[in-house]
Amino acid sequence: MKPAPFAYAAPRSVDEAAALLAEHGGEARLLAGGQSLVPMLNFRLLEPALLIDINRIAGLDGIAEVAGGLRLGALVRHRALETSPLIAHRFPIVAAAMAEVAHLAIRNRGTIGGSLAHADPAAELPLLALLLEAKITAVSAKGRRVIAAADFFTAALTTALAPDEILTEIELPDLPAGSGWGFAELARRAGDFALAAVGAVIAEAGGVCRIARIAMAGVGSTPLRAPAAEALLQGGALDPGAIAAAARAAAAAAQPAEDLHASAAYRRHLVEVLTRRALSAAVARARKAAP
Amino acid sequence: MSGKRRVAVTVNGTRHEREIEPRLLLGDFLRSELDLTGTHFGCEHGICGACTVILNGDSVRACLVFAVQADGGEVLTVEGLGSVEALHPLQQAFHEHHGLQCGYCTPGMLMTALDLIRKHGRLTEAAVRAGISGNLCRCTGYQNIVAAICAAAEAMQSEEPAGDA
């Protein structure tokens, strides 16, 4: 057998899971979809004393409309995000980006909560959480708190979650009416982690950009926003020159590393190209959606 | 919480009960406990797709799911697909199109293709190529696998109503 021995618990409620975490904390690991955790167990990169399997907790896999947004349970699978009519209607960028995540068998198991808690800096869902300004709920035996996505990703594979906390739900606040979106990524093979990925949200009114958001992945130790690039666009005309300038600013804000897949300079180049594509698509969709 | 756990898993229509360690992967459970060695392990970390099986209606990597997680569930493996006397349309198509050489990746290819066809019905060649991009074959160059899956998708659509495989 590949993984080191561990004790196993399959709690039926969040309270039960939180109580187990309160007791075992750093010795325990939560198992959601397992598509990143189990490889690490197979390689014995992790040897937790206790695996807490949250898959049998009822009610964590819902996608529901709430006042001001959409609420997603931590166990919503990538495949559900890809195929949910509610997601397609309210956050089509999420459905579109899911097609880029790994492969069908992985998307059948992987979860949104697991992806956010794992916090791979090249993964799509952390990028989307940052772009869509998601609010992430964490529960422990001591209570619950809501963490803004901007405060959630603290370093590669590291989040603001405490060892005794379980991520239970994600709220995506509604985008302003008339918003458009764009998403672009490049990977060397279908399903690989992105060398770089960029998401954009744009809203325009009266020929002027009202809202511009740009987030990128694969080019830093966490997903990143590009505030200088966003500021360049806000209040101005969304013409090709402005988009090109914003793309250059986003590339300047990237913090790419060099590895065997790509040089840092190439990743920075990709950010510029992908930002231009994502922004152009977002502007086109915003104009189509404009009231 | 610690020690062995009793699980009951229905595999290819037969219910099996075993006492197992929680760390036993579903693929090892199938191979070592049930002697169903049609499911192959390649990379054992979710990259190669050789161990793909159907769990509760969805394709999964049997190296990335623990057998305890399948407790109470239903698994379909390549052994449950067809028999030598009566090949499944997918197996028949792989046979006719020479979609395998060494055969190591074949069970994973078949189970992946089954999930693709069940979820999408008729498939374009591009959709098949994208759909099996998580299954590595080092012999065939994929050409004949793609041809086999396209042919099987057609054959299965004419036999069964969409989505009812």
Brief overview, please?
The complex is a heterodimer of chains A (291) and B (165). In chain A, 36% of the residues lie in helices and 26% in strands.
Q: How would you describe the overall organization of this protein?
A:
The complex is a heterodimer of chains A (291) and B (165). By secondary structure, chain A is an alpha+beta fold. Chain A has three domains: 7-53, Uridine Diphospho-n-acetylenolpyruvylglucosamine Reductase, domain 2 (2-Layer Sandwich); 63-173, Uridine Diphospho-n-acetylenolpyruvylglucosamine Reductase, domain 3, CATH 3.30.465.10; 179-289, 2-Layer Sandwich (Enolase-like, domain 1). Chain A has helices spanning 14-24, 37-42, 78-83, 85-90, 92-98, 104-107, 112-118, 124-131, 149-152, 227-233, 240-253, 264-289, and strands at residues 7-9, 28-31, 50-53, 63-66, 69-73, 135-140, 143-148, 153-155, 158-159, 166-173, 179-186, 196-205, 208-217, 224-225. In chain A, the strands form four sheets. In chain A, strands 4-5-10-6-7 form a five-stranded antiparallel beta sheet. Chain A has a four-stranded antiparallel beta sheet with strand order 11-12-13-14. The longest helix of chain A has 26 residues, at 264-289. The radius of gyration of chain A is 19 Å and the shape is globular. With 165 residues, chain B is an alpha+beta fold. Chain B has two domains: 5-80, Ubiquitin-like (UB roll); 89-159, [2Fe-2S]-binding domain (DNA polymerase, domain 1). Chain B has helices spanning 26-33, 89-96, 106-120, 125-131, 143-159, and strands at residues 5-11, 14-20, 52-55, 58-61, 74-76. Chain B has a five-stranded mixed beta sheet with strand order 2-1-5-3-4, with helices on both faces. In chain B, a hairpin with a 2-residue loop joins strand 3 and strand 4 (58-61). In chain B, helix 2 (89-96) packs antiparallel against helix 5 (143-159). The radius of gyration of chain B is 16 Å and the shape is globular.
